[in-house]
Design goal:
By secondary structure, this protein is α+β, with helices and mostly antiparallel strands. The protein has a single domain, classed as Four Helix Bundle (Hemerythrin (Met), subunit A) (Up-down Bundle), CATH 1.20.120. Strand 3 and strand 4 form a beta hairpin.
């Protein structure tokens, strides 16, 4: 069997997972999870791994972000969010690879592996979003940014890919 012989549903699941990986990759590595107003009126954009000022000319790494918040609740939330988002990202990449194989050679074993990986990816990403969102209310004068929403979409897309594979696995013998 070659890739041209697979079902269109398997290919849709693969494309959905590729979009999920791209969204998650962009979301994790951009500084737009939240926007805070600084002491001198400038905007501070904070992400999971980088924090920048309004000109994006001065950026600091994740270690500086964690040092800034010390042993506060925000420190713990940031660490958990980063950890879960990265674990979900790794599961997303693994799920994408399995779905590429599944789109070419659909079988029950590959479907089960893809379903599990998509569930783990989506679950970790959504858990990261929930932790960040719940801990976010303690920040004063902040708004959630598009990177936050993009990672939420990535988690949702991973779960959609899982549902598509479940539907497709019912169709293949």
């Amino acid at each position: 069997m070659v890739c041209g012989d697979s079902t269109i549903i398997a290919k849709v699941a693969m494309i959905v997972m590729i979009v999920s990986v791209v969204c998650s990759t962009i979301a994790i590595f951009t500084p737009y999870w939240n926007e805070t107003e600084g002491a001198n009126g400038d905007k501070i954009y904070t992400g999971l791994v980088v924090q920048c000022n309004n000109t994006l000319g001065v950026c600091v790494s994740v270690q500086d972000i964690l040092d800034k918040y010390g042993n506060s609740q925000y420190y713990t939330d940031q660490l958990w969010t980063l950890s879960l988002a990265m674990i979900g990202w790794v599961f997303s990449i693994a799920a994408m690879v399995v779905l590429i194989v599944y789109a070419c050679l659909p079988n029950k074993i590959t479907a089960i592996v893809a379903i599990i990986l998509c569930f783990l990816a989506g679950g970790c990403i959504i858990a990261a979003i929930i932790i960040y969102g719940v801990g976010f209310d303690s920040l004063v004068n902040s708004t959630l940014g598009w990177s936050f929403a993009l990672d939420a979409a990535a988690g949702g897309l991973a779960l959609v890919a899982m549902v598509i594979v479940i539907v497709n696995s019912c169709l293949i013998p």
